[in-house]
Specification:
Strand order of the largest sheet: 1-2-3-7-6
Largest sheet: 5 strands, antiparallel
CATH topology: Immunoglobulin-like
Shape: elongated
CATH class: Mainly Beta
Order of helices and strands: HEEEEEEEEE
Number of strands: 9
Radius of gyration: 19 Å
Structural class: alpha+beta
Strand content: 35-45%
Distance between the termini: 49 Å
CATH superfamily: Macroglobulin (MG2) domain
């Protein structure tokens, strides 16, 4: 009985490894939105992102500039940003804990401590809170 139980556990573990490996090796979806500027999820803001330096190098710490405006184009200078993200196909988050270093003028915010440790499909998620409201924006990147 123990042999059958052990064999079942080993087969289940092997199946999980195969599913994870196949998922990790899949290319990103063909219709992936790679826009660097878009309305926030709830439409409260228009959000743009750009790395401070290009190309974005794997394994290096770098900063991103996040620009936040209202739909009428006026800059948002009093927002608080949170940063999250990860690799959707791999099921893990960012290897670092990026954070906003604050407003640098004209609705622009510097986000420091971003690092992508491997190639593939990454997502950067921003939470935005200001007197205009709370909203989120998500950006896809492929390295």
């Amino acid at each position: 009985m123990r042999k059958w139980l052990l064999a079942g556990v080993v087969l289940a573990a092997l199946a999980v490894v195969v599913v994870v490996a196949v998922r990790m090796l899949m290319p990103p979806p063909d219709d992936l939105d790679l826009a660097r500027s878009k309305p926030s999820d709830g439409g409260t803001y228009v959000v743009s992102v750009e790395p401070e330096a290009e190309p974005v190098e794997r394994g290096e710490l770098h900063a991103w500039i996040v620009t936040v405006a209202l739909p009428d184009g006026s800059a948002v200078a009093d927002a608080e940003l949170t940063v999250d993200g990860g690799m959707p196909q791999h099921g893990h988050g960012l290897p670092t804990a990026p954070a906003s270093a604050g407003h640098i003028g004209d609705g622009r915010y510097r986000v420091e401590g971003v690092r992508f440790n491997m190639g593939g499909w990454w997502v950067l998620k921003f939470g935005i809170s200001s007197p205009a409201g709370d909203d989120t924006a998500e950006f896809n990147l492929v390295l």
